[in-house]
Amino acid sequence: MKILETIAAFKAERDKIGGSVGFVPTMGYLHDGHLELVRRARAENITVIASIFVNPSQFGAQEDFSSYPRDTERDLAMLEEENVRLVFMPAIEEMYPQGFSTWVEVEKITERLEGESRPGHFRGVATVVAKLFNIVQPDSAYFGQKDAQQLAVICRMVSDLGLNLDIVAVPTVREPDGLAMSSRNIFLTAEERKAALVLWKALCLARGHWEKGQRDVASLRQEMASLIEHEPFANIDYISIADPETLQEIDVIDSPALVSLAVRIGGTRLIDNTMLGV
Ligand code: AMP
User: Fold this and answer.
1) Does the CB atom of residue 182 touch ligand 1 within 6 A?
2) What confidence tier does 116 reach under pLDDT thresholds 50, 70, 90?
3) Which of 68, 142, 154, 190 could form a disulfide with 37 if both were Cys (CB 3.0 to 4.6 A apart)?
């Protein structure tokens, strides 16, 4: 496995690779969710390339960019174990050199949910991902359904700009009790870790009611909200039941629906989602 820190050095190695390339972009502090993307890429391609880059432009001023967890040594050992061929690990100045002034803005589907709670977030995500795609030149790139809106934004961007690669969605990997794996789970205290399960419980509650025939979104949302409000450590940012493609809220579930939520557990903001009807 080779670790490349500059675009020039990376391109020199990339040029030596023939056959299909699967790409897994990450912000590091890897867990089994990330590794699932790597394994899927491994199964479907001759070569796997990963990147580790904590992208400053997707964090708001009040967000956790500087405290975002990092452990490069451990990450690299995990990627090596999974037979990753190249790891692109640029410094901030490499990706955003002086004078950098080109941004990718995906409209409409970025207006709500994460985009509304985190202004500018998807502008940073789309820009860095587009740049990584240009540098890495993958045949396929792998993204987690855990970040459902991000996945929708990337698919929109790839389609709108006619980028020449496939986007592969990988199901969310969870802890044995159901909590979605996330690099940010490390911030949770033992008590908060227990409380964090309320996201998964709320999604399961919605699924349970839906399976019994409930189709009214307002009722489902209310049930989820009251469950979460009973958890003292939890503060709801949003609960959404929306069309999975447009991310517009719906009133009645009569086709596949994306149930997603963002909840603060103490000082840590967690997101999760599930699809109903697929
Ligand atoms: P991040 O390092 O948080 O930017 O995530 C990198 C990629 O891993 C994104 O495509 C995420 O959606 C994906 N990912 C993060 N957590 C999980 C998980 N629990 N299961 C599956 N994919 C995940």
Assistant:
1) yes
2) very high
3) 142
Residue 262's DSSP bridge partners are 238, 271
Average pLDDT of the residues in 167-179? 98
Would you identify the CATH topology of the domain 183-272? Pantoate--beta-alanine Ligase; Chain: A,domain 2 (3.30.1300)
pLDDT digits (tens, 9 = 90+) for 135-156: 999 999 999 999 999 999 999 9
Beta carbon of 34 within 6 Å of any ligand 1 atom: yes
**2-170 sits in which CATH class?**
alpha beta
Range(s) within the chain of domains with CATH label 3.30.1300.10: 183-272
Q: How far is the CA of 131 from the centre of ligand 1 (A)?
A: 19
Domain with CATH 3.40.50.620 in the chain: 2-170
pTM over 0.85: yes
170 CB near ligand 1 (under 6 Å):
yes
Relative to the CA of 174, which ligand 1 atom is closest? 19
Active-site annotation holds for 34? yes
